[in-house]
């Protein structure tokens, strides 16, 4: 591939995995130049990393031998991609806030190259509001992420989301960023989040959708090179890097924006669209009075998935719907394929905390088979689905058997 990665190794117990990552990259013809933080050197040595990488390791911002010709700038530019693994909570916080008090953070502030981070930390640290704010800010700044995954921690008895992605996962994510993506030149539409249907100026009907899965899918498609339009109901999420976002509120607004995006190669309808809306929206706030609870007449909203599935000559080559079910998952999803006319359904059980949680467990259903995927982070679900889409849209002779 003749590409070069600058690998920044952060100070966490997962630093030992980064040595294997160097090896995995080299197997694919990708050279790795290494920068280590001071804390990283408490877990693995520069000697070990340098022996595997095949060149010296950089550790000090004030190294006279390197900085006489502005070494941190060269490191920031003489690469095709920067990978941070492990990306600790502290390192993410520094980067999100533009701090540059050591070589690793100075390199990130000086680079114009893509950045991929592999977070690794205790689950409570990952879930902390400050870390999540920094995570959202870094995503908004264009940083890509792989992981963290769910698993056992180094601390006895600790488990949850925070385990660094495995070296093979990080390698694959890096390779995807280093090459022209398989979806380059393809146009994709993703709908995400809830819709809201006004009852009066202060009340509305909606649902519990967070938008996380749809946003993750939009990001994954963009990483594979697609030209992505994200039509989003109200959420608090940052727009994925490289994605065009259109904000809407009602189901009718979402349908209009989706139809305006045609023609497309693929449409993925992830949004949890309200099935009904009030027949009439009150112009003023409905007051409580002695008459009791007001009767609110409802009417059916337009079916966005069915409309795009039956769009005639403008129909996307691949139309994928999501089915949020609480029972008889496969049976209801298959009925939805038949009724809506879409190609695939991604079905999931939302009887738990899926709609607001960080993980998902889905069943990918096509017209002739069903494939159960294990429970995984929503980002991982998104990447796997994006890869399947890329395989489906590839020229027939290029598809994997």
Label the overall shape: globular
The proportion of residues forming helix, as a percent range, comes to: 25-40%
What is the percentage of strand-forming residues?
A: 15-25%
End-to-end span in angstroms?
Answer: 24 Å
- The rounded Rg comes to 24 Å
Detailed description of the structure:
The protein has helices at residues 15-27, 46-53, 64-67, 71-77, 89-96, 103-110, 123-127, 129-140, 167-178, 212-223, 251-260, 304-309, 329-340, 378-393, and strands at residues 3-9, 30-36, 81-87, 115-119, 144-145, 149-152, 159-163, 187-192, 197-200, 203-205, 227-232, 243-247, 266-269, 276-278, 298-300, 318-325, 344-349, 359-360, 362-365, 370-372, 376-377. By secondary structure, it is an alpha/beta fold. The strands form 6 sheets. Strands 12-11-8-13-16-17-19-20 form an 8-stranded mixed beta sheet, sandwiched between helices. A 5-stranded parallel beta sheet has the order 2-1-3-4-5, sandwiched between helices. A two-stranded antiparallel sheet has the order 6-7. β16 (318-325), α13 (329-340) and β17 form a beta-alpha-beta unit. The radius of gyration is 24 Å and the shape is globular. The two termini are 24 Å apart. The mean pLDDT is 87.
Provide a compact summary of the structure:
The protein has about 400 residues and is an alpha/beta fold. About 35% of the residues lie in helices and about 25% in strands.
